[in-house]
């Protein structure tokens, strides 16, 4: 997410406008894929492991060290993913 913004290819504000919907689409597609083709994988377990993976949680560590980074697109993307998972996994069960 950061590279297109840093290289001037994409505008951070424009990405932020679609971030929530994009993450919800991503989560829905993963859930649907698992239900259709990989029933042995529980989407809630998958996303729980993904969100709490130490490499994926790096944005949280960055914000702890430098609170001004909370406006960074990578941090916002991580938060959008967490919100989408909470919304969709709870809805779909």
What topology does this entry show?
Layout: H1 2-6, H2 12-37, H3 43-51, H4 58-65, H5 73-92
Helix pairs in contact: 2-5, 3-5
Any overview of this molecule?
Helix content is 73%, strand content 0%. It has 5 helices and no strands. Helix 3 packs antiparallel against helix 5. It has one domain (2-92).
Order of helices and strands: HHHHH
Q: How many domains would you count in the coordinates?
A: 1
Counted beta strands: 0
Give the % helix.
over 70%
| Largest sheet composition | none
Query: What fraction strand?
Result: under 5%
Global geometry: globular
Query: What is the quaternary state of this protein?
Result: single chain
Radius of gyration: 14 Å
Mean pLDDT: 90
Tally of helical runs: 5
Structural class: mainly alpha
Kindly report how far apart the N and C termini lie. 29 Å
Query: Which regions are unreliable across 5 or more consecutive residues at pLDDT < 50?
Result: none
Summarize the structure.
The chain is 73% helix and 0% strand.
Write out key terms for the chains shown.
single chain, 93 residues, mainly alpha, globular
């Amino acid at each position: 997410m950061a590279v297109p913004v840093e290289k001037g290819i994409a505008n951070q504000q424009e990405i932020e406008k679609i971030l929530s919907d994009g993450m919800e689409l991503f989560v829905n597609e993963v859930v649907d894929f698992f239900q259709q083709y990989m029933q042995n994988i529980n989407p809630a377990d998958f996303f729980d492991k993904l969100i709490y993976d130490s490499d994926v949680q790096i944005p949280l560590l960055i914000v702890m060290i430098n609170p001004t980074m909370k406006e960074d697109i990578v941090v916002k993307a991580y938060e959008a993913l967490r919100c989408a998972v909470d919304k969709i996994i709870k809805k779909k069960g």
